[in-house]
Each structure stands twice: as C-alpha cells, then as structure tokens.
Input
Amino acid sequence: MSRIAVVGAGPAGCVATHRLINAGCRVVLFEQGVGLQDFHSARSSIHFSDALAEEQLLDHSSDVTDAGNSALPYVRGKGVGGTSSVNAMVQTWGCPDDYNQWERIFGCTGWGWSSVRQEFQNLHMGSSRSVDLGRFSREVVDVALRMGASGVQHGAACADGAGSVALSVVDGQRLDAFSAYVLPLLRNAESAALLEVRTHSTVEAVVMEGGVAKGVALGDGTEEHFDAVVMCAGAIWSPLLLLRSGLYGPAIGRNLQDHPSLSIIVQMAQNVEETLPEVTSLVVASSAMGESNIHLLPVNATSNGSGMQFAQLAAAVTKVSSRGSVKEVDQKAELSLRSLTTDDDAEAMRAAIILASDVLAPLKESGLVVECYVDNTGTRLHELLAHDQASMAKFVQRQLGAYSHVSGSCAMGNVESEHAAVSTSGSVFNAQGLWVADASVFPDIPRGATQLPTMMVASRIARGIAQQLR
Ligand SMILES: Cc1cc2nc3c(=O)[nH]c(=O)nc-3n(C[C@H](O)[C@H](O)[C@H](O)COP(=O)(O)OP(=O)(O)OC[C@H]3O[C@@H](n4cnc5c(N)ncnc54)[C@H](O)[C@@H]3O)c2cc1C
Output
C-alpha cells in the first residue's frame, strides 16, 4: 500500500487526502499551522473579518514587491483548512469557456468543461444563501437590476447578472475544507487507520534522489521517506518548495495570476451593521474586453469602532492576461503580480471602476451613502475616475484589493510548452513520484473565486495519483 505525503492542509490538501485515503492509500498530511484543538471559535464564524483578526490563522510569509512602493503583505490562511478558514466562503466555479480554453489553448486535454463539471458537482462544501442579503448588498443588487442586469443566483457556471451567492455555510457556521473532507476520515476507524495529520509541521523541501521524490525534509531537521509527495502548499509556496528541492523548469514560479481588484470604501449615512455574512451577493458583468469579466462584490458594513459604518464594494477583473512570478528571498515569498500590465487588463479595470461608480451614484443621491473612498488617505472615488487609464492602473496596483486568488505558478500543460511546469495529471516534469495539486496548476485563472476550482483540480489529480500508484 503506497504511503503518500500531502504538503499543506488547505482546500487542495484536504480534498486530495480524502480522495487518496478513499482509494486505499496511506497519507500523512503535513500542515505548518495549528490544528483544530488550537482553534478559536472565530474559525467557524460566518464573519471573515473575525477569522482574519486571528493571528494564528494567518500566514504572513508573502509580500508583493512590485506595487511601486514598499512591500505589501499578501496574507493567506494557515492551519488546518488553510485559507478556507479565513476566506469569504463564496462558491463559484468560473465560466465553462475558462475550462474549454484550458483544453483548447493550453493543451490540457481532458480538462474541458464537460469533464470538470462532473468533478465540481462531486464537491461537498455545504451550500447556502442568505435570504436577507443585508442592507448594502441588497441596495447594490437592486441598483444593478434597475440598470438592466438579470436577476441570478450565483453558484455554478458563471453568468452575467446580480443576485445572491452560494456560501460554504452550514447551520449558521463556516464550513472549512478540513471539517468537510478530513474530519469525517478521522471519525471513521477504517480511514483513520490510514491517515495521520501532523500540525505545526513545516515541510522545508522534497527529498530528491536521481530525479525521484523520496520523501520530505521537515523543519525539525529530520527527513521522512514516502512513496510519493503531493504538493498542496498553495500557489505561493508549492513552486518555491519545488525550487528549494533543486527542481528546475522555466515555468516553476512563473505565470502567476490573480484577479486585480479595488476595494471601494463606502461610508454609509446610517448604522447598518449586519449580523449576516459580510459577503452575500455578487454582480457579474461583461465589458468591451470580454464576457463576464467584471465582478462587483458588495461587502456588508461592519463597525470600525468610531460610530460610523463602512461597507465596501470590491471592483474586480476576472479574466486577465497579465502574468507575474514568485521567488524566495530570505525565507519569504516575494510576489511580483504585474497586475494590469497589459492594456486589456487595465482597460477592463477601468470599466469595472466606472461600473462600480455608476452603481454607487444612486445610493449617494438617495442619501444612503455619504462618500466613497479608494484608499486609507481619503482619496475619493470621483477623484480616481478623473485619472487616465494608465495612472488609474498604477493606483490600483498599489492597493492590494479584496480578491486574493493567486494561481498558475506551476501551470499544467504539455512538456514542450514553456508555460507548463507539470503534466495534465499534475506530475512535475523531470521528476518521479512528485505531483502538484493546488491552484498553482491552473494554466489560466478562471472567472470566479478560486476555492472550488482549486478543490476540483486537487480532487481530479488525486484520483489520477491513486490510480497510478494502485
Ligand atoms: C482573504 C481571502 C478571501 C478569499 N475569499 C474567497 C472566497 O470567498 N471564495 C473562494 O472561492 N476563494 C476565496 N479565496 C481564495 C481561496 O481561499 C484560495 O483559492 C484557496 O484557499 C486555495 O487553496 P490551497 O489549498 O491551494 O491553498 P491555501 O488555502 O493557501 O492552503 C495552503 C496550506 O498549506 C500550508 N502550507 C504552506 N506551506 C507549507 C509547508 N512548507 N509545510 C506545511 N504546510 C504548508 C498553509 O499553512 C496552508 O494551510 C480567498 C482568499 C483570501 C486570502
């Protein structure tokens, strides 16, 4: 029976572990952060601001260094569940054509929509919607509908329109990936016998011998032997751990993508603090640069302690051609996102900001909204709109927005492709017994939030590994 190391207990690592154990493999799941017993109740809170305030749930090991000023932190989740313990719980899959393009343009045979849809349908992350969207969310959706948007319930395949989003919330509590996929294994005697979860356990590198992955080197200086290693450390650290392990390839750590976004801080006239999740709805729109390539994400108001109430509206571009890279410097990850460095992306961002302004204008006219700011120093939205496209793009690059969807840094594809670091089954080129099974492998970022696409990819790659090792 094969013994496999899965590195990282985020959404990817949890699903991969589940699939491997169900196929009869033995798994040790390594997680650098805390385990369930160390968690504060904030972890199950439906308010992601509560979870983000918990230092032990955050990984501060990454900075963005290309924003034109000093390094900005790019925070991720840490501890079992990974970023699913601190994120906004929004469930979207992306657009069918995103996956058809993986197949058609990036040579990822077998990853077209008709194949991945089934995999998405097999994911179980709970799925509920807030009946009450919250005052700010509801107003944004209503304005978008009055402007001609269709009313939709966002969930599976993306579509233009305004309406509620499906959330990973069950019985009023966040459902993180560890609770959904690993806890049930630990509660079943048969599967628990095959699984070991090691928290506070950092994998420093993969032990390679003659091109074969032999195991992992751990932070305490020890090495442990395995038959195979599956990297699920996220799109920042999976490529960096490969590079640390002596693996080379022009695409490892390159092709990094994210959804550029601008958080518009909306000062409300009245106290509209909500007990609902911050994010309950979404507006998806098309621009001249592409279909369904703009998201407006209302974030319900939370108190800043000063008596005034602030909501946010994230304006994001979800179909992008800009690509950056990640490298390791002094044990920290340095991300060069190069967001909005193509004209198409900058133009789409401008369209997203204009749409956000159009949606917010009636709320200001009605007196519900007092003012809209685009940074912490009081720059107003209308001042930003006076900028030309290039300086608007520069401004947005300096604001790390609400969408943190890094991916693509070990892209799948053909061995001949300069773009690809792993095969279409996730196996690392020029290595045996070594796979990547997280958002790193996206050849192109889909038009949706990335947790479910990451889980879809991990599920599919893990099934393939289990078949190969059987
Ligand atoms: C603030 C925020 C809000 C978001 N909101 C949403 C949302 O609403 N919907 C959505 O779909 N997506 C959202 N996302 C994105 C989504 O959470 C990620 O796409 C998803 O978590 C990626 O999963 P992953 O398993 O690849 O990586 P991660 O979730 O980053 O998990 C990686 C895990 O590996 C561990 N690890 C890393 N290095 C090592 C090592 N060397 N040894 C051992 N363990 C290691 C980390 O501690 C972590 O637990 C959000 C992201 C952020 C930051």
In short: The chain has two domains: 3-117+174-255+406-469, 130-164+259-398. The pocket of flavin-adenine dinucleotide is lined by residues 7-13, 30-33, 59, 76-78, 82-84, 86-90, 202-203, 232-234, 237, 241, 404-405, 438-439, 449-452, 454 (CB under 6 Å). The two ends are 8 Å apart (CA to CA).
